[in-house]
Here is the input.
Amino acid sequence: MTKDKKLKILFVASEAAPYSKVGGLGEVLRALPKKLRELGHDARIMAPKYASMDVNKFSLKMEMKDLKPIRPENDPNGLFVSNVLRHENEKGETLAYFLENMEYYEKRANPYGYTDDHVRWALLAKGTLEFLKQSSWQPDVIVAADWHTGLISNYLHTDYKNDAVLSKIAVVFSIHNIVYQGMFDPHFVSDMDYDSGQEEIPAFDNPRLAKLNFMRRGIMYADVVNTVSPTYANEITTPEFGELLDDLLKERRLCLFGILNGTDYEVYNPETDSALVQNYNSKSLEKRLENKSALQKEFNLPIRPEVPLFSIVSRLTDQKGFSLLLETTEPLLRNFDIQLVIEGSGDGNLVSFFQDLVKKYPQNVAGHFNFDDTLTHRIFSGADVVLIPSKFEPSGLTQMEAMRYGTVPLVRKTGGLADSVIDYDPKTKKGTGFVFESFDQYSFFGVVVRAIETYRYPKVWQEIQRQGMKSDFSWANSAKEYGQLFEKAITLHTQQTNE
Here is the structure.
């Protein structure tokens, strides 16, 4: 990318913090566009305007009224007529657009979980393109974030391929988790319902729309495909991790890239975080003990600084690897003097398991079985270890956020965890965490014991903490890589257009 080249970039996503956030996707959509703007690019967001959005906090202006679909005959009741709203910063710079639709967004309390989600995401894709077709601002590249926006590149390749404006725009399709591909489980699709990605996208009111593989179509028609860590980009080209799309991804391997997600160091900063009892940095780790004591008190655990305090901050799901704890946690609690705090919600069997542990070991285990962002910061500031034994992990933010606060990650070597956590080597005294490879309870048990034994040596432990805190996972480096990726997409799109 030439030094002075500044790009116009539109991110399209189902969620984007601070306007709406359910998970890591929303956090990425806050931090990455922000960092790209700091680098001089004109980066904007397009997302639905949900009922939960705080319009008093984010003042909105009408950008385009009565945006209609390309085929009005498919919408006899006028449900798809939408408006586009605009949010600006105090300097008058446009940061975000919102697709306003009463039926499909503003009547809904949550971004996800509706039987007609396929219609809602098709509407977001089509609405974005219809808006750009008529707008005075057109991006050089659209970043379609995850399966919800997979139809954008498909529409551009078909319905809008000859459009004088839209045909010039390059598309990057960003895979955040390949497991989720549409309104179905890709492992249980009949031959009759299988979507090869070749057929025309049906109308909004056609039941066939619910059976399309939005993820497949995003991969097939984008100029460039990226995912959220280099290791995950390699993993998804294999049958083990590719979720039946590995052959397609191998075909597109020359256009597939992986860039590790970053962490917003303004939001996650132990020196300035107002949620903490005591602020600190890597040079004043002794102050961190006050946060540990406060955390133990908050969870009604005995205040014992000498005991290693393990933590879980996560969705409690099988993907996150917590099935490994079903057979290992009680032996660990019986044989070692440790504490464990859990924050999160998820699968009923896992939640019940941890709730039973709390009842059985009240002096050692405590839990908060809902998400609380402020509590997350307090856990990172006081816990000694965070457990992330994932089956697979496209990127993961928890390990990077935890390291920022001096909590040592214990992770499985997969995806973004492999790219961000260095296994501690007592010979070289180098490392930022504890890593195991095989997904089985014995490997997990062994690495937990290794962490417990290492904790017995405070100077060694503090050095691991410092190395983690000094690791640079800010968005600055990742944003520069994304700028180069966007240039590749533009170049490839221009070449294909001119062929």
Remarks:
- The CA atoms of residues 229 and 260 lie 4 Å apart.
- The domain at 285-473 is CATH 3.40.50.2000 (Rossmann fold).
